[in-house]
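> example.struct
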């Protein structure tokens, strides 16, 4: 079993020294390749919607289509059709932009998240880009907790190695973490429920709650009790990718 952590959207938001990447996880499973989140897609580089154009300026998104999951997959020697399933933490443009590059894949997400796309009612739901869904994704939707995973409510996914969707609602209405069995331990992509590089004290509590949702304090306590779990956030310092995906927090210099 192979797990690759790819950076599928490079950004320098707010300060040039904040150089971040957007981790997407590529997993070789019994059901073919599974991608967790897609990052930006080719259409975000070649014909971005006005909303994505705005965010590309605001977040300093690097205009490099080679960052897209489909280009990186080809560089790893895979055909796009080998990605049979995509599991989404949430459907913001910087996580879902590549969906249309894999139109044949089944797209697994929490039902509440697609509801938020179809019926937005909150400011943070402005970051959904209709262009990401106009090809008509083949949705597989979940809304019932089926398991407890290390004490957290979880939804078992139909793959080996074991994978769980872990509801972490707050950043968006149906935002979930994704846990993947990795040898004797686990990789847990908490996405935008955690601040950059899982640095729990990077941003003040009020800002975390406003932008990331309510889970930072409880995930901090939970993580200290589970050293067998490697945590990922939805945005990691680029040094994380450049140093062979070492999961130690690295403060930018
Ligand atoms: Zn987000």
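> example.seq
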């Amino acid at each position: 079993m192979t797990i690759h952590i790819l950076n599928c959207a490079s950004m320098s938001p707010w300060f040039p020294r904040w150089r971040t990447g957007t981790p997407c996880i590529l997993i070789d499973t019994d059901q073919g390749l599974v991608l967790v989140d897609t990052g930006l897609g080719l259409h975000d580089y070649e014909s971005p919607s006005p909303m994505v154009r705005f965010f590309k300026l605001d977040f300093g998104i690097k205009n490099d289509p080679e960052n897209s999951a489909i280009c990186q997959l080809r560089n790893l020697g895979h055909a796009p059709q080998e990605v049979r399933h995509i599991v989404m933490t949430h459907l913001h443009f910087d996580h879902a932009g590549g969906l249309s590059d894999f139109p044949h894949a089944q797209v697994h997400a929490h039902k509440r998240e697609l509801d938020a796309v179809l019926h937005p009612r909150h400011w943070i739901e402005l970051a959904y880009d209709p262009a990401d869904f106009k090809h008509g994704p083949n949705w597989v939707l979940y809304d019932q907790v089926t398991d407890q995973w290390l004490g957290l409510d979880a939804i078992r996914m139909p793959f080996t190695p074991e994978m769980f969707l872990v509801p972490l609602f707050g950043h968006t209405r149906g935002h979930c973490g994704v846990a993947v069995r990795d040898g004797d331990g686990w990789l847990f992509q908490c996405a935008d429920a955690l601040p950059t590089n899982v640095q729990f004290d990077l941003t003040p509590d009020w800002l975390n709650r406003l932008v990331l949702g309510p889970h930072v304090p409880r995930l901090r306590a939970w993580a200290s009790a589970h050293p067998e779990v490697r945590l990922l956030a939805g945005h990691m310092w680029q040094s994380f990718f450049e140093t062979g995906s070492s999961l130690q927090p690295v403060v930018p210099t």
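> remarks
The radius of gyration is 17 Å.
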